[in-house]
Model the fold of this input.
Amino acid sequence: MTLRGRKMLKWALWTVLLFLLGGIQSSPAFPELFGMRPSLLLAAGICGVLLEEKIEAACGYAVLAGLVWDVVEGRLLGFYGLLMLLICAGAGWLSENYLRSGPLNSIWMSAAGSICCGLVCAEFYLFIWGYADGAVPVVIWGMIWRGIYTALTAPLLYWLMKKMQLKSMGLVESGLRLRASRMRGDRKE
Done:
């Protein structure tokens, strides 16, 4: 299989995972933590940004995750898509310039992204209309618990997406390493 075909396979696997996560996130049987479910689609978008080298493609994946989230939650189409674009572009910029890609960074980025999404969502759907008058601490604590729960699921998603990436792209990467090691051996002689 060519390099382009392997990349297409990786993106196809990640997209199927995205739709599965959307179904799992909206399932009423999914376990809750203090009445909150994790933002699996947000964690998948951030893990995609951390694993992908090109930030443009990763942000496109994050927007797709946000659009799936819009459909799952029944929100205005593009609301979570725009939020995911902003959050994942920030995560991609951080990982490109300052941080290494790894499960620990996916944990805190997913938690922070979940809390930011919760704050924006609460502002537009609750606070502006006065629906949460007197219940602001309850809403804030709910967002914090959702962020913690999302952070707990992020390493599992990072590991799963990394395995998918290695299975689809692994032979190409190992072939490149082999060629590079041969080149270094040729230089020494």
About this structure: The radius of gyration is 19 Å. Residues 178 and 184 are 10 Å apart (CA to CA). The chain has a mean pLDDT of 84.
